[in-house]
Amino acid sequence: MLIAPEEYPRRVKPTEKAQRIRDLTRRHNEWFKESIPLIASENFVSPVAKEVMNSDLHNRYAEGRPGKRYYQGNIYVDDIESACENLAREVFKCRFADVRPVSGTVANMAVLMALTKPGDKITAVSLSDGGHLSHAKMGALGLRGLRAHNYPFDQKGMNIDPEGAIRLLREVKPKVALFGQSVYLFPTPLEELRSTLDDLGCTVWYDAAHVLGLIAGNRFQNPFVEGVDVVSGSTHKTLPGPQHGILLSDLTKEDLELSLRKGVFPGVTSNHHLHSVAALAITLAEAKEFGEAYADQTIRNAKALAQALFERGLDVLCEPKGFTESHTLVVDVEEHRGGAAVAKALEGANIIVNKNLLPWDTDPVHPSGIRIGSQEVTRLGMKEKDMASIAGSIARIVMDGDAPAAVLPEVKEFKKEFTKSHYCFFEGAEAYDYPSCDVNM
């Protein structure tokens, strides 16, 4: 017997556990609306990117390349992915892009799959010097069975030591020379290393996850101009897109394109999160329009925040070099109970940073530093003068010993003026909109 339309059950109340998840998600959203987000590896997508992420693309599957899929139903997906790759080539001024990696680490795994075999030698920055987990033996390099060698590091300058790196490269003769960091204050000295790398004939790989948006905005450095063969990255840090990954190349080496394509699929991906590809395409289109202004303000804000913290007595690293040339700054808080305790205390005042290893640390659980990024607060419309307010709130807790609860009202009041999206197509749209299917349940 057919059920009459008016009798069909259109709504079913979520179970208690499901409703709890909805409530927790809303509480998280409201918390960040009242918080100062300073994690150097985070950002938020624009309203248009959010719209395409919340589409039927989220439900679909694609394997392979546009026009050569293993699934039907990809007529529009093919056009979206092709447009995304074209935009990536335009923004980064290169001849090759693959937008299928689903994260920065997966992009790195694809490069390793494409360029190395177990037992090969690779050079990289160590974890304690700011290298990424996927650059370490305990991460993707170990998974691939590579022999990793770490560059000598200038602790005062927070960068690779060029002379030491040249000696290491000549001694090791790596198959791949990997550069890039998750604590990335200054451009890699690629120009100083270039003749050595050319002589060795190794493949030069640059993990631009943290600085991808700065590169898109013609800031920081241009890896391809400086001799890099392959660039990998995540797409949600200084490039304010979805959580996804990307590979780029100017294809200076023979057969590199085929190797990279195979490294991505079938190497380390199957379906590649089509809603994120669409959101990445929107992000790249916005980077073409707003990328230079956004990158410039991001760096200005990082420098201003570093200076303001330094003036309030905090030990911000690299003061003689101007603290930073990126979105990131690092503070040694060992004498203030260490990075873990300081990060936890700041969180109690809705100031969100992370503890971070410094080059002289040995304990990743209790490091002496905190890492701070300016890219998300810049996206929210903050300028240099606002960095002084943030520094003041941080100093109250770290330097003056004020209780986080006493600083929290000050932070909430300050954040009320900064809840909207900037450097995007819908300038001034609410950044913390939460799509709801609430129907009085």
Q: Care to describe what's here?
A:
The chain has 14 helices and 17 strands. The chain is α/β, with parallel strands linked by helices. It has two domains: 236 residues, Aspartate Aminotransferase, domain 2 (3-Layer(aba) Sandwich), CATH 3.40.640.10; 125 residues, Aspartate Aminotransferase, domain 1 (Alpha-Beta Complex), CATH 3.90.1150.10. The chain is globular and about 60 Å long.
CATH-defined architecture of the largest domain: 3-Layer(aba) Sandwich
Mean pLDDT across the residues is 94
Distance between the termini: 29 Å
Can you tell me the residue ranges where pLDDT is under 50 for at least 5 consecutive residues? none
Helices and strands: which structural class? alpha/beta
The total count of helices amounts to 14
**Could you name the CATH class of the largest domain?**
Alpha Beta
CATH homology superfamily of the largest domain: Type I PLP-dependent aspartate aminotransferase-like (Major domain)
- Strand percentage: 5-15%
C-alpha-based Rg, rounded: 23 Å
Number of strands: 17
Shape: globular
